[in-house]
Amino acid sequence: AGGAPRPLRSSPPLRRSRLVRRLFLLQVVTVLLTVGGLAALGGYGAVRLEHDAAGRLTTGIALALASDPEVVTAVRDGGDVATLSARLQPVAERVRRATSTSFIVVMSPQGIRYSHYNPGEIGLPYQGNIVPALAGRTSTEVYTGTLGPSVRTVTPVLVDGRIAAVISVGVLQTRISDLALRSLPGIVAAAAMAVLVGSGLAVLLARRLRRQTLGLEPEDITAAYTHHEAVLHAVGEGLLVVDGDGRLVVVNSEARRLLGLPGHDSPDDPAVPGRPLAGLGMDPAVAAVLTSGLRSDLRDRAALAGERVLLVNSRHAGPAAGPGTRVFTLRDRTELAGVLRERDEARDTVAALSGQAHEFGNRLQTVLTLIELGDTADAAAAGTAALDRTRGPGARVVAEVYDPVLAALLADKAWQAAENDVTFAVTDACDPDVLPELRLPFAADDLVSLVGNLVDNAVEVVTGRAGERSVAVVLRTGPDGRELLLEVADSGPGVPPDTARELFTFGFSTRATPGGRPRGIGLALVDRIARRLGGSVTVGARDDGSGAVFTVRLPLPAEPSGDDGDTVPPEDPGAPLHRPDVAVHRAETPATDRA
Q1: Which residues lie below 8 Å from residue 109, measured CB to CB, with a gap of 6+?
Q2: pLDDT digit string (tens) for 21-44?
Q3: Does the chain have fewer CB atoms within 10 Å around its N or its C terminus?
Q4: Which helix (H) or strand (E) holds 187?
Q5: Weakest-pLDDT range from 290-304, 340-354, 565-579
Q6: Residue 70: what pLDDT?
Q7: Measured between alpha carbons, how far is 98 from 92 in angstroms, rounded to an integer?
Q8: Is the pTM value of this prediction over 0.85?
Q9: Which of 183, 181, 151, 192 is nearest to 168 (CA)?
Q10: Distance set, CA 286 to CA 18, 401, 564 (Å)
Q11: Cα–chain-centroid distance for residue 305?
Q12: Where would I find the Histidine kinase domain in this sequence (predicted)?
């Protein structure tokens, strides 16, 4: 108590992870094996290169000596071993030292040496294969001689077309290895650098992986993902997560349903991660609200998705989600509005019934007093009036309207109008022969939305106005029986022609919004429902130029033809209520008396 509250952590603390350690060790071992293998291949390659270079060197020297005039002349002149050795040994040693080869042996076709790196070997048989040379070919081989393993080339010396001698030039393997070792420091340095770089990258990757996984083990990550998916798709609100570039990150099942998007397993699903928010094919009204939510926070902003009213909230997702990432929540206000409307209507009905009960008690007391006074005639009249009064305005509406859904709805609206001192009149001039089972061929939800929004709008417009306060509802079928006309007229201020064009646009309203209550939804819903049903809605003035008349035209299914194929068009049920030259039934509802 009294201390400053500790800030909430945005993410759980990092912890040691066996997964990270295993991955790090795996990366280090992989780097070592890879670099070691490459180093071994590099060393082997260097040895092979020096071996090939030695073969080319010995071949070139052997061929050059075999055609050297001094060697050819000495061999042609002939002589014993000592004589030939005295002439050929200096030549061979001079060339050997100049070319850094290990030995150069000039020998007779029988393999008796005339020259050698070790003079003590002169006159002894040559250790190696001279059969290819005696056949007139030059060959290169690896052979272990008196000086050790060597790469040697053997070639014949031709004199007048005959093989007069054989020359062998060799480089010891130790010499080749010494030459290959010159490349070893570079290979080792490159390998060490690769190990250091690979190990450093492995450390950085391990740290990054530890931060990204928060030190969680694989089973923890699996459980977290499973729970995330379960919560994401079980939550009752639509959820959208959009990054700073306006691209979709997450969308749950409820958001797909509210926005009219296909399921995630659909082949033409547009709501895939990375898709721009504007490319989801949403209702333009919803897209405009979501786009505005990318720039600033939203709180219960109303949006119309088709015929569904959504409340959109937007807030920043926090630094852990990346800069500019936004979380949108979508709630279906349509069902909530229906529940609130039913609550308000029930509350109004209870208030009206309470007033009626109080009034009925007063009238009943009057009847009893008249009976006690012996005035039975006045008592009967007062009782009849009290009974008729108790039935309320809804009884006359129910008796007037054919369709039971509209009858129940308009009866409730009659009570609402009575509570607001509004004269409410209903006329059902539909041809009963056109309506199957005396019901309108439309879904109950569509009828409630169409009539309810228009009547609520009309009652609200005239409530509290000075002078006439009246609302009239007319239902009638067209002359050919293929069209239903619904008219709702009110004695309000009317709608200017320039405003009538925008009146059915979502969000547009001519009235203030006290308490932040969203406006411009009801008439937009009426327009969308009417267009979906193949009809239209228009607004104009009453015949006397005052007030407003909203007219909804809906096509009716074609009436089945008779057996003879002839159809008799129904009679014109008459003009709408606001025409003064036609007599209509008016179920007027006076204001309820208050005690």
Answers
A1: 130, 134, 163, 164, 165, 166
A2: 777 777 777 777 877 777 777 667
A3: N
A4: helix 184-213
A5: 565-579
A6: 86
A7: 10
A8: no
A9: 151
A10: 47, 37, 52
A11: 19
A12: 447-558
Question: What does the alpha-carbon distance between residue 390 and residue 403 come to, in Å, rounded to a whole number?
Answer: 24
One-letter amino acid of 113: R
Please, how many CA atoms are within 13 Å of residue 98, restricted to the half-sphere of its CB?
8
User: 66, exposed or middle or buried, with CB in 10 Å at 0-12, 13-18, 19+?
Assistant: buried
Gap between the Cα atoms of 384 and 313, Å rounded = 56
| Tokens, residue 428 | 């059902």
Crossing angle of helices 404-419 and 444-462, rounded to 10° = 20
Query: Cα angle vertex 209, ends 203, 210, to 5°?
Result: 90
Burial of 330-366, coded b for 16+ CB within 10 Å and e otherwise, reads: bbbbbeeeeeeeeeebeebbeebeebbeebeeebeeb
Structure tokens at 503: 């009146």
Q: The tokens of 420 are what? A: 């607001």
Other beta carbons less than 10 A from residue 95's beta carbon: 18
Distance CA 86, CA 115 (A): 9
Residue the block writes with tokens 């006076």: 590
DSSP at 14: P
φ, ψ at 71 (rounded to 5°) = -70, -45
User: Would you tell me how many other CB atoms lie within 10 Å of the CB of residue 52?
Assistant: 13
Structure tokens given for 461: 């417009």
Give the pairing of strands 162-172 and 148-159: antiparallel
